[in-house]
């Protein structure tokens, strides 16, 4: 029925044109033009923040009021288009669809009709209704009022959607034709995780040049891979049966990654995973990973704090979930290796909002009461010496914890965090309390690196928002595969060998190579908050070096003597945590379909770009 509806639109255009003209002529209201002119004037004079009109709620109210008061006015068709576009910016695809549909039905002869079709196509695509979206985009091709530029845009999106729709059909083995290759994309494209799958797919499609900007002749065969490991394994088998497919990108979720890795290894099909599950590349020589892991973040953070900032005493406040436990474990291990000490560690429950007990216990807070006249004054002092406090949780929690630190007079310590801190929302919620804090990530869109700025510009031009870590990592993974194909490798083993022997690739997330286990060797971005803004720290990176052997003290990492470098004590720190007291971490085979909850957090580009959650689940 939906397909029939969309294909009949050009016919309805011809049939209803006289009726529409009559309706608009006899419904003409001069006051409506004045009202709409005033609304549009405020719209043009308004400003956008993060891609959304300032005062959008007021604009929505005024436009809806105008449409209600002037249902047949000459300007109502444009009012519907403008209103729907604002809802698109707000990621409210249900309301956007409603107003685009009304425009298509009530104003089929409008000059904005093709725009309404395209907008409805976008809305249904973002809502997960791929078939209806494809039908709408095909209609634009034959609509008499469609412009060439709109047809090109519609064709580009249609190519993307048809690739996704293929996930429901069985792949057939085909021979290479015209030197074309294909890569498979294993992503969650339906359900609660689809927004993350869509983001990764955009990075992959941009790398594959599917929008006709020249370059690689590479097809993308997308397959929907949700929570079920068995379905993910089946998708690998089907893609392996297509001789065009020379490599895979994905999956994202920890529940499916182990089975995908094992099946890809068995099929001898190279796969570059985007999962954070530890030790995944050790599955076999055909399995690689291009993504930040919990261990890489924890160790980079510890190394930077110890080597660059000179911090020695650390405290950890972590959420009692798999992500928090793993982060605390890896950070503690690295601090001890470097010669520092974790002087206190405390966990808290997920969803907790009151952190008074945990902080007073962690910092051994002492309370002294005194009277000033009739006032009772309480003074708080910390009973332990701490240089830095690690809180591996998202910015919402940091916004709740940070004020407690000021309340308990815990000052002159550096707050340390993980990639889930990297959002402008951190500044909104925690403000001055996170000034000078240090956290790490795998990608920073504001970087001055040439590869990053070019990627961000291309991505924003095509998709209309600023890319985040997931888009960047999937783009780099795809480009690594595509570069191997462009060199003329003809077998999957050749592709695997190319990845294994790859010299440093200058990606949008930084220089990348693979170690002997297939793990990406890359430098994480170190970020700080300065003047209410998140900034990248430009510094000569000092990688972690193991403790020096006896007699080698005073040698710098490059082998030359230096009075500014001292090795970590050979026997480790005095005190600190023993192996028995480290937070326990369980590691399964990934066969469970249960995932950790994800954060619906917003990135620097607003609602379009939710920040990547710290853990895809266990």
Explain the overall architecture:
By secondary structure, this protein is an alpha/beta fold. Helices cover 43% and strands 16% of the residues. The protein has 20 helices and 21 strands. Strand 5 (245-249), helix 12 (257-267) and strand 6 form a beta-alpha-beta unit. Helix 7 runs antiparallel to helix 8 (130-142) and helix 10 (194-207) runs parallel beside helix 19. The chain is flat, with a radius of gyration of 28 Å. The two termini are 41 Å apart.
Descriptors:
disordered C terminus; 7-stranded mixed sheet; 21 strands; disordered N terminus; alpha/beta; 618 residues; 5-stranded parallel sheet
Strand content: 15-25%
Task: Provide a count of the helices.
Answer: 20
Mean pLDDT: 77
Overall number of strands: 21
State the separation between the terminal residues, measured CA to CA. 41 Å
Low-confidence stretches: 1-8, 10-28, 46-54, 167-179, 211-216, 541-618
Shape: flat
What portion of residues is helical?
40-55%
Question: What is the alpha-carbon Rg in Å?
Answer: 28 Å
Major sheet, described briefly? 7 strands, mixed
Class by helix and strand content? alpha/beta
Strand order of the largest sheet: 9-8-12-13-14-18-19
Describe the structure in brief.
The protein is of the alpha/beta class and 618 residues long. Helix content is 43%, strand content 16%.
């Amino acid at each position: 029925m939906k397909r029939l509806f969309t294909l009949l639109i050009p016919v309805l255009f011809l049939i209803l044109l006289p009726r529409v003209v009559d309706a608009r002529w006899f419904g003409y209201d001069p006051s409506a033009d004045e009202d709409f002119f005033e609304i549009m004037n405020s719209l043009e004079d308004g400003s956008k923040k993060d891609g959304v009109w300032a005062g959008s709620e007021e604009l929505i109210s005024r436009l809806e009021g105008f449409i209600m008061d002037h249902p047949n006015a000459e300007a109502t068709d444009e009012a519907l288009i403008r209103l729907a576009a604002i809802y698109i910016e707000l990621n409210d695809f249900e309301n956007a669809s409603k107003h685009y549909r009304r425009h298509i039905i009530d104003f089929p002869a409008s000059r904005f009709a093709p725009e309404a079709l395209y907008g409805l196509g976008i809305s249904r695509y973002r809502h997960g209704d791929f078939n209806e979206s494809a039908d709408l985009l095909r209609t634009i091709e034959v609509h008499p009022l469609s412009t060439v530029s709109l047809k090109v845009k519609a064709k580009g999106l249609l190519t993307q959607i048809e690739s996704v729709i293929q996930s429901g059909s069985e792949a057939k083995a085909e021979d290479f034709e015209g030197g074309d290759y294909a890569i498979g994309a294993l992503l969650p494209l339906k359900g609660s995780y689809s927004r993350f799958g869509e983001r990764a797919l955009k990075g992959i499609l941009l790398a594959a040049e599917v929008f006709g900007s020249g370059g690689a002749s590479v097809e993308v065969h997308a397959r929907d891979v949700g929570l079920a490991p068995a379905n993910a394994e089946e998708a690998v088998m089907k893609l392996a049966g297509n001789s065009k497919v020379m490599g895979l990108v994905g999956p994202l979720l920890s529940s499916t990654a182990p089975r995908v890795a094992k099946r890809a290894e068995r099929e001898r099909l190279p796969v570059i995973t985007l999962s954070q599950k530890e030790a995944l590349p050790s599955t076999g020589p055909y399995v690689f990973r291009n993504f930040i892991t919990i261990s890489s973040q924890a160790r980079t953070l510890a190394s930077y704090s110890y080597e660059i900032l000179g911090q020695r005493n650390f405290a950890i406040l972590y959420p009692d979930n798999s992500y928090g436990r793993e982060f605390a474990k890896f950070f503690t291990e690295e601090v001890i290796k470097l010669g520092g000490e974790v002087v206190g560690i405390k966990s808290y429950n997920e969803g907790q909002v009151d952190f008074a007990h945990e902080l007073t216990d962690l910092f051994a807070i002492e309370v002294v009461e005194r009277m000033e006249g009739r006032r009772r004054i309480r003074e708080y002092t910390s009973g332990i010496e701490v240089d830095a406090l690690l809180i591996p949780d998202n910015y919402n929690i940091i916004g709740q914890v940070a004020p407690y630190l000021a309340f308990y007079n815990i000052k002159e310590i550096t707050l340390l965090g993980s990639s889930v801190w990297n959002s402008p929302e951190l500044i909104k919620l925690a403000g001055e309390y996170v000034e000078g804090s240090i956290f790490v990530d795998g990608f920073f869109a504001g970087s001055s690196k040439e590869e990053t700025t070019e990627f961000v510009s291309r991505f924003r031009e095509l998709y209309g928002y600023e890319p985040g870590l997931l888009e960047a990592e999937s783009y780099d993974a795809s480009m690594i595969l595509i570069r191997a194909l462009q060199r003329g490798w003809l077998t999957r083993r050749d592709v695997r060998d190319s990845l294994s022997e790859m010299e440093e690739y200058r990606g949008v997330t930084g220089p990348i190579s693979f170690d002997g286990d297939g793990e990406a060797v890359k430098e994480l971005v170190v970020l700080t908050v300065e003047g209410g803004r998140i900034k990248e720290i430009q510094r000569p990176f000092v990688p972690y070096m193991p403790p020096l052997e006896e007699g080698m003290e005073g040698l710098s990492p490059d082998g030359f003597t230096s009075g500014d470098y001292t090795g970590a004590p050979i026997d480790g720190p005095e005190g600190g945590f023993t192996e028995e007291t480290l937070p326990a971490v369980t590691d399964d085979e990934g066969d469970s379909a249960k995932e950790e909850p994800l954060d619906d957090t917003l990135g620097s580009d607003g609602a379009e770009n939710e920040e990547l959650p710290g853990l895809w689940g266990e």
